[in-house]
Design a protein that fits this description.
This protein has 678 residues and is α+β, with helices and mostly antiparallel strands. It folds into 4 domains: 156 residues, Glutaredoxin (3-Layer(aba) Sandwich); 327 residues, Glycosyltransferase (Alpha/alpha barrel), CATH 1.50.10.10; 68 residues, no CATH class; 89 residues. The strands form 6 sheets. The protein has a 5-stranded mixed β-sheet, with helices on both faces. Strand 16, helix 23 and strand 17 form a beta-alpha-beta unit. Helix 9 runs antiparallel to helix 10, helix 11 packs parallel to helix 16 and helix 18 packs parallel to helix 20. The longest helix is centred in the C-terminal third of the chain and has 20 residues. The radius of gyration is 26 Å and the shape is globular.
Length: 678
């Protein structure tokens, strides 16, 4: 392999292919590039980004397309490009290194490494003049003070190993953590616009889910109000696409008005779940509608013909951020009738001066209008016209790689969407995605992390396994297909074998087989994605209740114990972990339903799925079955549908009274069944 040329044309990643024509001699992450660094005694310049990253595009245009910059990079460094979505394991190590250098994280991540891959200096986006200066200074230090460079790299790696080596300390969480989580959430809550913190403001879906459970546990009305207010404000805001649906990644302001316009699959999966849970808890029609529209966006825009889900849509089109989404007043006046124009501009706050760049407007629903105003004939006709016009515009770049982890999140969202909304399209989409993943990304049993252009590649990480298992468990709860749960159990066995830390508890993020990864760590806190250990703990608890295998529960307890000290101190950063702890400590329930004939329990299941019963599992079959073990030795008595309910791991007498069983489940969940009848 030659490092005298750009090698990215041989890759499949959309992000790497965006850089294949740069004059920089980019190499892919791998032993060939590492060997070149050792043989030529050059430091590595590592650039990590993703294809829908706005500032990655800016740095490419300013620096990586520039001959002067390329000459310096090619002469003094071995330049390596990494797609963080393909290699979150690589990204995690070097982003943690940047934080260890006391610098703010973000992408593009720009890191300098020794030939042994140890980080010694880094940053994010640098404008071209500053970047050239940085390159010159780093090259000088490498030549004149290599000992200092190696010492810095060694110390950072040792720090990271210590930081990521969490061990069980024998001290578990207490239920006081829920009160602490609520208080921290209340302190950071924005009472004017909802959400948590100030600009830039991100949706925190798992924080909302945890607040719903705190409300359900203790009847704290402020927890519910924070959730309702935030869901309302986000859906009204410009972070939500009112014409084409789906959520952008974050808001640049506190009001949710102007987003960073890229749309991520993982955000839309998590937010669909948040709105579905919000609807289950409150029966608010707006939440139902937003969930439906978000899932419809994923079906229309983000679904591969084979069934998998794509990764993201860019913020930029034609070189401008948001251009696809925004409108001038003149744009609207040219195509709408006078009545349509007047009403549309009032409802969506469009003005001649605009609220975004160059006099353009990003749509947001005015406070004086309810969500039902979207169904006004003038709004419907105007929206249809504008959507058709927008579809004819140059679309943002779509990252069409299919990631196992993110597909697991969307499988869960689609499955839950069918449960709550009853739309068969969502259940079919979840099954098709699962079939696709098994065929393309688990052909030999072990998972792969990424599929694109006919190629499955990269050993899966913990999040790939945990998110997919979570999605499959939720999918099994829909129509109780044994093969779905069997695959989830097989994946759980593989996850345990590859990632479980038998000595210290919890799961490593990687399987330890890649020598280029200098640190093998464990994490418990959330980021933009739910923490994989936390998801794994919740999976283990649900699998225990379905299979009655005590080993699953023991692993879940050990995982929670590992992160308990930090979670107790910073609970708001551990929302997903606390969801698992809520399941563990709540009056959870296990239900076996043996139908007298197929479909006989449909009315019961519709009521169960429409309400807020978060901590339960159900297994069902017709007449009798041996799998999963929750169904063993149970049957439809007298040929009639029979319910076998266990509450808090204590089983009650079989019942054939569906309403009685629902009432008992509602008592466990502290849920008001009458709310569904309003």
């Amino acid at each position: 392999m030659s490092t005298r040329e750009n090698r990215l044309k041989f890759e499949k990643s959309p992000y790497l292919l965006q850089h294949k024509d740069n004059p920089v001699h980019w190499q892919a992450w791998g032993e060939e590039a590492f060997r070149a660094a050792r043989e030529e005694n050059k430091p590595i310049f590592l650039s990590i980004g993703y294809s829908t990253c706005h500032w990655c595009h800016v740095m490419e245009h300013e620096s990586f397309e520039n001959r002067e910059v390329a000459e310096v990079l090619n002469r003094d460094f071995i330049p390596i490009k990494v797609d963080r979505e393909e290699r979150p394991d690589v990204d995690d190590i070097y982003m943690s290194a940047l934080h260890a250098m006391r610098q703010r994280g973000g992408w593009p991540l720009s890191m300098f490494l020794t030939p042994e891959l140890k980080p010694f200096y880094g940053g994010t986006y640098w404008p071209k003049p500053l970047f050239l200066n940085v390159l010159g200074q780093v090259a000088k230090v490498w030549r004149e003070a290599p000992g200092q460079v190696f010492e810095t790299g060694d110390s950072i790696v040792e720090y990271l190993k210590l930081q990521k080596s969490a061990q069980a300390e024998g001290v578990g969480l207490s239920e006081d953590v829920f009160g602490a989580f609520f208080r921290q959430s209340l302190m950071s809550f924005d009472p004017a616009w909802g959400g948590f913190g100030q600009a830039p403001k991100f949706p925190h879906a798992n924080q909302l889910s945890m607040l719903l459970r705190i409300w359900r546990r203790g009847g704290e009305p402020r927890a519910l109000e924070m959730v309702k207010f935030t869901l309302d404000k986000m859906a009204r805001g410009g972070i939500y696409d009112h014409l084409g649906y789906g959520f952008a990644r974050y808001s640049t302001d506190a009001r949710w008005l102007i987003p960073h316009f890229e749309k991520m699959l993982y955000d839309n999966a998590q937010l669909a779940v948040a709105y579905l849970e919000g609807f289950r808890a409150t029966q608010e029609p707006m939440f139902r509608r937003v969930a439906q529209e978000t899932l419809d966006y994923a079906l229309r825009v983000m679904t591969d013909p084979e069934g998998g889900f794509y990764s993201a849509e860019d913020a930029d089109s034609e070189g401008e951020e948001g251009k696809f989404y925004v409108w001038t007043f003149e744009d609207l006046s040219e195509v709408l009738t006078r009545d349509e124009l007047d009403h549309f501009c009032r409802v969506y706050q469009v003005t001649p001066g605009g609220n975004f760049e160059h006099g353009t407007n990003n749509l947001s629903l005015a406070a004086e209008f309810g969500w039902a105003e979207k169904d006004h004939p003038l709004i419907r006709s105007a929206s249809e016209k504008l959507f058709k016009i927008r579809e004819a515009r140059v679309h943002p770049h779509k990252d069409d790689k299919i990631l196992t982890a993110w597909n697991g999140l969307m499988i869960r969202a689609m499955a839950m969407g069918w449960q709550v909304l009853g739309d068969r399209r969502y259940l079919d989409a979840a099954h098709r995605a699962a079939v696709f993943l098994k065929a393309r990304l688990a052909p030999q049993g072990d998972l792969l992390a990424r599929y694109r252009d006919g190629e499955g590649r990269f050993a899966a990480r913990l999040d790939d396994y945990a998110y997919l298992i979570q999605g499959l468990i939720e999918l099994y709860q829909c129509d109780f297909q044994p093969e779905v749960l069997s695959w989830a159990l097989d994946l759980q066995r593989r996850q345990d074998a590859k990632f479980w830390d038998a000595a210290g508890g919890a799961y490593f993020f990687t399987d330890g087989s890649d020598p280029s990864l200098l640190v093998r760590g464990k994490e418990g806190s959330d980021g933009a994605l739910p923490n994989a250990n936390a998801v794994a703990a919740a999976n283990l608890l649900r699998l225990h209740d379905l299979t009655l295998d005590a080993a699953y529960r023991e692993k879940a307890l050990k995982t929670l114990e590992v992160f308990a000290p930090t979670a107790a101190e910073f609970p708001s950063a551990f929302g997903t972990l606390l969801l698992a702890y809520d399941y563990l400590t709540d009056l959870s329930s296990e239900l076996a339903v043996l139908e007298g004939k197929a479909g006989e329990g449909a009315g019961f299941f519709a009521k169960l799925r429409g309400g807020f019963f978060p901590n339960h599992v159900v297994a069902s079959a017709v007449e009798a079955a041996d799998f999963p073990p929750l169904l063993q030795n149970r049957r439809a008595q007298g040929g009639k549908t029979t319910y076998y309910l266990c509450r808090d791991h204590a089983c009650e007498a079989p019942s054939q009274d569906a309403e009685e069983v629902l009432t008992k489940l509602a008592e466990c969940a502290r849920y008001d069944l009458e709310a569904q009848k309003d």
